[in-house]
Design a protein that fits this description.
- 2 copies of one chain form a homodimer.
- By secondary structure, chain A is α+β, with helices and mostly antiparallel strands.
- Chain A contains 15 helices and 23 strands.
- Chain A has an 11-stranded mixed sheet with strand order 3-7-8-14-11-10-9-22-23-21-20, sandwiched between helices. A 5-stranded mixed sheet of chain A has the order 16-15-17-18-19, sandwiched between helices.
- In chain A, strand 20, helix 14 and strand 21 form a beta-alpha-beta unit.
- In chain A, helix 1 packs parallel to helix 11 and helix 3 crosses helix 7.
- The interface between A and B is large, with 53 and 53 residues.
- Strand 5 of chain A pairs antiparallel with strand 5 of chain B, so a sheet runs across the interface.
Chain lengths: ~475, ~475
């Protein structure tokens, strides 16, 4: 009976290896992470998905505040004239803006874009707030929704509306702006590796792939299990482009009027999609312990036997008190159903408590990532669980890293590149020309992902993998979400 | 010098008694709580204002979760056809909706309202999620931005875009929905009184003043220092109105298909405006300690003297470690300037540390609410501060309550009502007719605020204060924001 239920359950999810996109859709819906709404391109984030976002927010927000950033809130609407002040920026974002043209019954004199990102409105305020070098640096962040009108959408990965944070800072010098850009990139890297258990390649985007209006864009790229890349976050050095367009000037110590240098950086609910596609398996989600809404699920076994339910509840309460996100499932489903349910939900550790365990003063722990069983004495449960969750984190990170490494190749020839991007990431020499980039994309479906911070140097005489002209850099190519 | 600075500073704020609206505007801008944006009707919440919102959010969110509510996120956009399904609701909200009519270059087939509130979209999802009584109750909340197109705006109090939370629940029975409505009303009351130090009158709205589409709306009304009312929050029993319009049905234990009963409840950044107008004085803000971004400001006095700066920094660090939101101001402004600055910012306690204090192993504490000075031995500082902040909270609450009581009258005659609403709240008997309500509003500018949960009973033979017909209830009248 339990066996049948098991099987029935697992077959509800498409095979990860046979149909990765369908597997993704099955997993996010069946685990109640997300649902489709009747609104074009917009998703509903259900409590089990939103809780992950809250845990991400808490841990990122603490990191931002530690480095002196403060949260603020800027308007949702951006007048068209304001959007237009930075030429490259408007070119990048206007085509995908949602436009408010009516307020109540009234046609607006100027249409308003629903913010696709907030450089324009924030820089226009910074222009009011910055007068002297004493006002600098300005270090702000906002948590909000943004809208980019998308034709083809997929929950978490690409939707018309999504949730994110966007940091915006203004500095005295170009050097300080670059330092901030890299500091925030490193904050993201730390978060992705040490919280989400996702290895990322940090590097600089090509001119074509950089943020509209930026001087330089730095990115964090992760490999999904199907070998495709997902851009997990970006940190932009905006140079003085926006300061000049929005007139952010300050009086220097020497009494001269100077333009500021600004940065912006953001990560979004897209990371949730990345987390699912990096760690999930054929049984469903595998949640990294540090953002798992439930870290430990306690299952009473033979719950009708005297004392079992009480002991399980007692354990759950102890674990909650000790700071674990713990729950008990005392529903009247079969154990087999419950095993499947909580495996599908990706809960890192399942604790089974039955009459024999109680007799032996122990519990049986099952790791979600490896399905390995461990017997843990009750007296050292909290201590062992802390270590176990850390161990699961490390093991998940290493597994993801191993997959990435196994699917990354160095291509000497264009043929090798074409083959490599069918399977994963390709490192190759590149001439730096947008034309080459576009041709490679047209021919292979792969885009440049980044010039890695470590390892983008080329050897003397190196030539572009595509055109054969002298190479300028080593760069990653991959198909991407 | 310090004296002059003092005076210069205080005169930057209009007198609270002579021009309350100007005082409000001066205070919120000069303290950098908020700024006007170039976007029609939209405000920028600056870090000092946003921090208050974050502290409010944390404390409310914990209360919601304790009572089993989970956070989720629903789309910003609501298709017009969806908005129209509940007749009263669309009538109430469509006239003030902002409409998105274009996505990118494309004119949309159906225009989308930027959510003014989310009953419609959330109920349409509940209709998919609820099948059986086992799925009930559904207890969700979302923190988000909403837009109501306003002609005349004032930061925090009424803006086209604002931030809020909206709880939405679905239940098996009318009784459970009513119980939830009152539970959330009481959660808000507890928060407003015990966190914001604002006394509120809880009661039911008249038919005219209730939420568009609700069965009954319950409200929390606070008195501002100018005697006007501010609706601080509402909790709606929506009956089966939305369940019928959006088809939220469940199979009961008996196997019958039944409609759910739903509720919704919300509070917004408007509460920040209320907090300012209830507690502020001619020197600026007076922050209630439990949401003050800075609870204690440490000022080194004669900071050039050896050991002073170090001791002040040490105290600040100790206080932070002990869990206080503490900062030190070691800028090179004069002490007088600093006193004014931090008084204007409403920091509950100022600690002065000078050479003589250090010698005597003490600090001088100055309460913001009363400006009273206290000498506190350094060794018992944390302990005394905890008690002092609690004392300030209680004292602020009592002061606000005393003001409200002194400005509330019982009117036997219409003449008394007319006089009373010039100054504050009026309790009077009312026939329950909307016509009477409308006439009173036209003649006096006052609206019905609520039928209080306690004290709305009438004596036998009581007549309406306006029309003289038999009265149905006692009700509060006031001018309102």
């Amino acid at each position: 009976m339990a066996k049948n239920k098991n099987e029935e359950f697992v077959t509800q999810i498409a095979s990860r290896t046979e149909n990765f996109p369908q597997w993704y859709t099955d997993v996010i819906r069946k685990t109640e992470m997300v649902d489709y709404s009747g609104v074009p391109g917009c998703m509903v984030i259900r409590p089990y998905g939103y809780r992950v976002w809250e845990l991400m927010q808490q841990q990122l927000d603490a990191r931002f505040k530690e480095t002196g950033h403060e949260n603020a809130y800027f308007p949702l609407f951006i007048p068209e004239s304001l959007l237009k002040k930075e030429a490259e920026h408007v070119e990048g974002f206007a085509p995908e803006a949602a436009w408010v043209t009516m307020g109540g019954e009234e046609v607006l004199q100027e249409r308003l874009a629903v913010r696709p990102t907030s450089e324009t409105i924030i820089c226009s305020m910074y222009s009011k707030w910055v007068e002297s070098y004493k006002d600098l640096p300005l270090l702000m962040n906002q948590w909000c929704n943004v809208v980019r009108w998308e034709k083809s959408t997929r929950p978490f990965l690409r939707t018309s509306e999504f949730l994110w944070q966007e940091g915006h800072t203004a500095h005295e010098t170009a050097e300080e702006a670059q330092k901030e850009t890299m500091q925030q990139l490193n904050t993201y890297r730390d978060f992705m590796e040490n919280v989400l258990a996702i290895p990322v390649i940090c590097g600089r985007k090509s001119e074509k792939e950089k943020f509209a209006g930026a001087y330089a864009t730095f990115t964090l790229e992760a490999m999904m299990q199907d070998g495709k890349a997902l851009q997990m976050g970006t940190s932009h050095n905006l140079g003085d482009h926006f300061a000049k367009a929005y007139d952010i000037q300050y009086q220097s110590k020497e009494g001269k009027l100077e333009y500021c240098y600004t940065t912006s950086w953001g990560v979004s609910t897209r990371m949730i999609g990345g987390m699912i596609m990096v760690h999930g398996d054929d049984r469903g989600l595998v949640m990294p312990p540090r953002v798992a809404p439930i870290q430990v699920i306690v299952l009473p076994i033979a719950a009708h036997k005297p004392g079992v339910l009480e002991k399980a509840a007692e354990l759950r309460d102890q674990l909650k008190l000790a700071g674990f996100r713990a729950q008990m499932d005392d529903s009247d489903h079969s154990p087999g159903w419950k095993f499947n349910q909580w495996e599908m939900k990706g809960v890192p550790v399942r604790l089974e408590v039955g009459p024999r365990d109680i007799e032996n003063n122990q519990v049986v722990a099952v790791r979600r990532d490896t399905l390995e069983k461990l017997v843990i004495p009750m007296d050292s449960l909290a201590e062992r669980l802390t270590a176990l969750l850390d161990e699961i984190h490390v093991s998940m990170f290493n597994k993801a890293l191993a997959i990435r490494e196994s699917k990354t190749v160095d291509a000497e020839t264009y043929e090798e590149l074409k083959q490599g991007v069918q399977n994963g990431f390709v490192r190759a020499n590149w001439c730096g020309c947008t034309d080459c980039e576009l041709e490679i994309k047209a021919e292979t479906g792969a885009t440049t992902r980044c010039m890695p911070l470590e390892g983008s140097e080329i050897e003397e005489g190196a030539v572009c993998v595509h055109c054969g002209k002298p190479a300028k850099t080593r760069i990653y190519f991959a198909k991407a979400y």
